[in-house]
Design brief:
- It comes from Ornithinimicrobium cerasi.
- The protein is mainly beta.
- About 5% of the residues lie in helices and about 40% in strands.
- The longest helix has 19 residues.
C-alpha cells in the first residue's frame, strides 16, 4: 500500500495557452511519473499531435445544416436521422468498454444493514454523423468478425441485458449489489456513452444522483466527501476486464497525505467492490482520492450521502476528476437558484498532491465572458487540499477556470440548505399552536390539530372534522402521547469534477427521468478559447437532433435545456480549442429539492497513440 504524497500529474501547459489533449495514453489523463516532468513537454510534439486530432475530428464538427431547439419537451420528428454506424476513418477505437457503479450503498464490505436502493443505467451508441466510426455487417458471422456489436449488461452476469444496436438506446434497472458494463466493437465503439441515475426519497438515502459511466484507467482521481458528522463515502471499484486487478488507494486532505489502512484491494474480473472510505483511512477533511490499479485498468466512483440527525442533506455519485494539471475547468454545477430549499453555497475543492505548493488563480466563465472573483487567488500547501467557499459569484450559469503554477486537481460542490427546521409529518409542515397543540398544515392547506384525546382532527374545506391526514395517512398520537414519526425539510448536494478542455467528443447517456418530481435537465457548455460547438441529442426512439451552438467566444458558458425524451448527449468542438460540459438535473417534492450534476467525460475515440521520433541533426 502506498502513502506516497507525490501524484502522477499530467504534462500540463504553463497557463499561457489552452491545454492540448494528446491522442493515446493509458486513459488516466496522460499521467507522468513525477510533478517535476510538468515542464518537460515538447511543444512541437503537442502541435504535431493536435494536427492529427483536428484531422480526425473535422467530420465531427464541420458539417452544415444545424437545427435549433425551442427548449420544449419533444424532439422534432421532421428533423431527425437514424442511428447507424457508417464507414470509418482510420485511427478510431475498434472496441470500447465503460463501467457504471450501480447502487453504491449495496455491497459495501462488512456492511449488512444497507437500505434498499434502485438505480437506472442507460447506454447508447453514437449517431452516424457524430464522427465516422467503423462499421460492419449487422448480419455478420456468429463470431462477430467485421460486425458492430454493443451490449449493456451487469457485472454479476445474471441480470438484465440489452442489445444497443437492436434496441437503440437501452436502459436496465439495478437493485442488487452489482454494477453495469457497456461493451461495443467495430462501428459501435467510437463515442460509446453510458450514464447512471439514482433517486430516493427514503430516510437515510434521500437524494438524486447522476454520473457518467466511464472508461477504465490505471489511475483515477476522485474529489468529493468530507468529515462532517453524518457524511459517508462509498468507494465503488468496477473491473470491466476478465482478470482480477489490484487497486491501491491514496488520500490527501486538509491536513496533508492521509495514512491508509487496508487500502490495497482486489477487484474480480467483470466484477466490482464497494468500500467505505472511512474504513480505508481515518476521517479526512476535504478528501481527494487517487485510485491506482495494477494488472489492468479500473473504473472508480465515489458515492456520498449526508444526513444530520433526521435532516436529509443529499446524495451524489462523484465521477472522476482530471489528473493534476496547471489549467483546468470545473464545469457548471448549477444553472440557477433551486425553486425549493434554502440558501445555496458553492465550494471549490483544490488539491496540490505533489511536492510543491500551488498558487491558483480562479475565474468564472459566464455567458458574458470571464468574470474576476474577489477570492480569485488561492494558495494550497504541498500535499494538501483546501475548500474555498465562493460567495461572490455572478448570477446565472457559470463554470470555473483554474490556472496554477504547479499541478492541481479539483472539484466543486453545490449545497442547498433545507428550507427550514420545522419537522415534516407525512410530507406536511408541523408547527405548535398557541395552546401547545401540534398544528400541521396538510397538502391541501387544511389545518390538522391533535385533539385532547390524541386523535388527529382536521378541519376540511367544508368545515367537517376528519381523522385522516394528507395522503390518507392517519395522524394519531399514541396513548403515551408520542407523536407520529417526524422528518425535517431536506437539503441537497451536487458535485462536478474538474476536467480539461478537449477537442475529442464527450458525452453521457441519460436514463428516463419520469420519476423525478418536477424534472428539469440542462446541458452547460464552456469554452476557454473561442470555438464552434455542436450538440447531438438522441431520443428514446433512436432519433437524433443536432443543435449548432455556433462559435462561442473566449471564456464563456452557455446553457441548453435537454428535453425529457432525450436519452444521450454528445458535445463536439469544431477545432482544436476544445470544450467542457456538464448535465444538471433538478426537481422537487414536498420534502425539498432534488439536485444532481455530472461532468461529461471524453468518449472512447482514438484507437492508438501517435508516436513522433526526432532525429538529431
Amino acid at each position: 500500500m502506498s502513502t506516497d504524497p507525490n501524484p502522477a500529474p499530467t504534462d500540463g501547459n504553463d497557463g499561457r495557452t489552452s491545454p492540448t489533449v494528446v491522442a493515446g495514453g493509458d486513459g488516466d489523463g496522460g499521467t507522468s511519473p513525477s510533478p517535476r516532468r510538468l515542464g518537460e513537454a515538447r511543444w512541437w510534439r503537442l502541435g504535431a499531435v493536435s494536427a492529427v486530432v483536428v484531422a480526425l475530428l473535422w467530420g465531427a464538427g464541420a458539417w452544415d445544416g444545424g437545427l435549433r431547439l425551442d427548449g420544449g419537451d419533444t424532439v422534432d420528428e421532421s428533423a431527425v436521422t437514424s442511428v447507424t454506424p457508417t464507414p470509418a476513418s482510420s485511427g478510431l477505437v475498434e472496441a470500447a468498454t465503460l463501467g457504471c457503479p450501480g447502487p453504491e450503498l449495496l455491497g459495501v464490505e462488512g456492511d449488512r444493514g444497507a437500505p434498499a436502493q434502485v438505480v437506472q443505467v442507460a447506454a447508447a451508441v453514437a449517431p452516424d454523423r457524430l464522427g465516422e466510426p467503423r462499421t460492419g455487417d449487422a448480419d455478420a458471422d456468429a463470431d462477430g468478425e467485421g460486425g458492430a456489436t454493443a451490449r449493456l449488461s451487469t457485472t454479476a452476469g445474471s441480470g438484465e441485458e440489452a442489445d444497443l444496436l437492436a434496441d437503440g438506446p437501452a436502459e436496465i434497472t439495478l437493485e442488487e449489489a452489482a454494477g453495469a458494463l457497456v461493451d461495443a466493437t467495430a462501428g459501435a465503439a467510437p463515442a460509446l456513452v453510458g450514464g447512471q441515475l439514482g433517486l430516493s426519497g427514503d430516510p437515510g438515502s434521500r437524494g438524486l444522483s447522476l454520473t457518467a459511466c466511464t472508461a477504465p484507467a490505471e489511475t483515477v482521481w476522485l474529489v468529493g466527501g468530507g468529515d462532517t458528522p453524518g457524511r459517508t463515502e462509498q468507494l465503488v471499484l468496477t473491473n470491466p476486464g476478465d482478470d482480477a486487478v489490484t487497486v491501491e488507494v491514496d488520500v490527501w486532505g486538509a491536513d496533508g497525505p492521509a495514512v491508509t489502512t487496508g487500502a490495497s484491494v482486489v477487484v474480480p474480473g467483470r466484477g466490482r467492490s464497494v468500500h467505505l472510505l472511512d474504513a480505508l483511512t481515518a476521517q479526512v477533511g476535504s478528501p481527494v482520492v487517487r485510485v491506482s490499479s495494477s494488472g489492468g485498468p479500473v473504473v472508480a466512483h465515489l458515492g456520498e450521502h449526508h444526513r444530520d440527525g433526521t435532516t436529509e442533506l443529499g446524495a451524489e455519485v462523484v465521477g472522476p476528476s482530471v489528473a493534476p494539471g496547471t489549467d483546468l475547468v470545473v464545469p457548471a454545477v448549477a444553472v440557477g437558484a433551486p425553486t425549493t430549499g434554502g440558501a445555496t453555497s458553492l465550494t471549490l475543492r483544490i488539491a496540490a498532491p505533489g511536492e510543491d505548493a500551488a498558487v491558483v488563480d480562479v475565474t468564472a466563465l459566464t455567458q458574458d465572458g470571464e468574470a474576476r472573483l474577489a477570492s480569485r487567488v488561492t494558495r494550497v500547501a504541498a500535499g494538501h487540499s483546501i475548500d474555498v467557499e465562493l460567495d461572490d459569484l455572478p448570477e446565472g450559469v457559470l463554470a470555473l477556470r483554474l490556472r496554477s503554477d504547479t499541478a492541481v486537481t479539483a472539484g466543486a460542490r453545490l449545497t442547498v440548505a433545507p428550507s427550514g427546521e420545522e419537522p415534516l409529518q407525512d410530507g406536511a409542515a408541523v408547527t405548535t399552536g398557541p395552546d401547545g397543540a401540534a398544528v400541521t398544515t396538510g397538502a391541501d392547506g387544511a389545518a390538522v390539530t391533535a385533539g385532547p384525546d390524541g386523535a388527529a382532527v382536521t378541519a376540511g374545506p367544508d368545515g367537517a372534522a376528519v381523522t385522516a391526514g394528507p395522503d390518507d395517512a392517519a395522524l394519531t398520537a399514541g396513548p403515551d402521547g408520542d407523536d407520529p414519526p417526524l422528518t425535517r425539510p431536506a437539503g441537497e448536494t451536487a458535485w462536478v469534477g474538474a476536467t480539461a478542455p478537449s477537442p475529442a467528443p464527450m458525452g453521457i447517456a441519460l436514463p428516463a427521468r419520469d420519476g423525478i418530481p418536477g424534472s428539469r435537465a440542462t446541458l452547460a457548455v464552456s469554452v476557454v478559447d473561442a470555438t464552434a460547438v455542436t450538440v447531438h441529442l438522441l431520443d428514446e426512439r433512436g432519433r437524433v437532433q443536432r443543435e449548432e451552438l455556433g462559435r462561442l467566444p473566449n471564456d464563456t458558458t452557455v446553457a441548453l435545456p435537454v428535453p425529457s425524451g432525450v436519452r444521450a448527449v454528445w458535445v463536439t468542438s469544431g477545432g482544436p480549442a476544445g470544450v467542457v460540459a456538464s448535465v444538471v438535473l433538478e426537481g422537487e417534492d414536498r420534502g425539498g429539492p432534488y439536485l444532481a450534476a455530472a461532468t461529461l467525460p471524453a468518449v472512447p475515440w482514438g484507437g492508438s497513440s501517435t508516436e513522433v521520433t526526432v532525429l538529431a541533426p
